[in-house]
Each structure stands twice: as C-alpha cells, then as structure tokens.
C-alpha cells in the first residue's frame, strides 16, 4: 500500500504525479516505439527506469495465482536496439 498521497512531501508528490503521468502516457499510446543503444550488454539506465516506472500493478499488469498477467492486451510495440 504505502503512505497516503497527502501525507507525502511536496517533492514526493511531484515524483508520484510524474510517475502517474508517464504510465498514463504509455497506456494512452496506440503504438510504442523504443530505440536504444546497448550499453555493457544492457539497456541504458534511463530506459530501465522508464520501464520500472510504467510497470504498475493494477494499471499495466495484475498479479494472479498463475503469476503476473498483462493488462495491456492488443498494444503494439517495437523495440530497436543496436
């Protein structure tokens, strides 16, 4: 659960609001195109942070007895990595 939004500091509230904005932007997109370099056999830190931000239980996926299930069925995505 976590702390109630109104009990968070102004800085924390701004960060949570930005996380929600990024998640809503992802959910409202018809298609998602991601292009990135490969750094040390991995994705750049900022891309990893974005992926972590938009993975929200109850919004983009849900936990079930069989494990996590996506709530983004039908969303088209293209990932280009060099």
TrEMBL record:
* Pfam families, per the entry: Flavodoxin_2
What domain of life is recorded for the organism? Bacteria
| TM spans (from-to) | none
Location of the Flavodoxin-like fold domain: 8-82
Q: PANTHER family, per this entry? A: FMN-DEPENDENT NADH-AZOREDUCTASE 1, FMN-DEPENDENT NADH:QUINONE OXIDOREDUCTASE
Q: What is this protein called?
A: NADH-dependent azoreductase enzyme
Organism, as annotated:
Enterococcus faecalis (Streptococcus faecalis)
């Amino acid at each position: 659960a976590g702390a109630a939004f109104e009990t968070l500091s102004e800085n924390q509230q701004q960060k949570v609001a930005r996380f929600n904005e990024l998640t809503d932007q992802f959910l409202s997109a018809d298609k998602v195109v991601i292009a990135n370099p490969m750094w040390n056999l991995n994705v750049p830190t900022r891309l990893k942070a974005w992926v972590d931000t938009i993975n929200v239980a109850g919004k983009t996926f849900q936990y079930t007895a069989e494990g996590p299930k996506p709530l983004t069925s039908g969303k088209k995505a293209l990932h280009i990595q060099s």
